[in-house]
Design a protein that fits this description.
heterodimer, A: 114 residues, 7-stranded mixed β-sheet, B: 115 residues
């Protein structure tokens, strides 16, 4: 049982380049999330997907797009990377059972934009 | 909107000493509250959660937290620190909308344990 997996683990981009971060979960969860983690700011929600076929903006969506490819996979795309997007990106998933969702996190992608 | 404040971005304790990590929240409705732990180079793991039942919540690895509504606090404690407790700890408050469970995280507290 792998839980939540993310690829790549590390990435260095130049300003203006694009890339897609991949996330997959094998827990049959309905909801998936993308966060970014910056020092002193905790985790901030970029986008989420409550269920397959739906996506919504979180707190900091500018400069990002997402795709919920199927129930397992949720990708995050940076169309034109900027240095301000240097961060650690975490994908998470949760199940809505009981109305109280524990979120399960992947190991993260460390992105540097030069 | 909910918010979470963690007092002290860095806390240092000696091995065997009491661990106290502080968390205060603001919420217009009774909240769901969480503590997550992040070990170096790993994702976050759930430590414990408050679900509107008992105000004293026990989690993994000997941690516990007490919900105090009057103080809007949810501080994390452990009686005796172990070297393996060195990590970053995040307090989070949950809010619900039609789309599901959204977490608002505090800024995190890095716990250092001295031998």
């Amino acid at each position: 049982n792998a839980g939540v997996t993310q690829t790549p683990k590390f990435q260095v981009l130049k300003t203006g380049q694009s890339m897609t971060l991949q996330c997959a979960q094998d827990m049959n969860h309905n909801s998936m999330y993308w966060y970014r983690q910056d020092p002193g700011m905790g985790l901030r929600l970029i986008y989420y997907s409550a269920s397959e076929g739906t996506t919504d903006k979180g707190e900091v969506p500018n400069g990002y797009n997402v795709s919920r490819l199927n129930k397992r996979e949720f990708s995050l795309r940076l169309e034109s990377a900027a240095p301000s997007q240097t961060s650690v990106y975490f994908c998470a998933s949760s199940d809505r059972a009981g109305g109280l969702d524990t979120q399960y996190f992947g190991p993260g992608t460390r992105l540097t934009v030069l | 909107a909910q918010s979470v404040t963690q007092l002290g971005s860095h806390v240092s304790v000696s091995e065997g000493a009491l661990v106290l990590l502080r968390c205060n929240y603001s919420s217009s409705v009774p909240p769901y509250l969480f503590w997550y732990v992040q070990y170096p180079n790993q994702g976050l793991q759930l430590l414990l959660k408050y679900t509107s039942a008992a105000t004293l919540v026990k989690g993994i690895n000997g941690f516990e937290a007490e919900f105090k509504k009057s103080e809007t606090s949810f501080h994390l404690t452990k009686p005796s620190a172990h070297m393996s407790d060195a990590a970053e700890y995040f307090c989070a408050v949950s809010s619900w909308n039609n789309a599901g469970n959204m977490l608002t995280f505090g800024g995190g507290t890095r716990l250092m344990v001295k031998p």
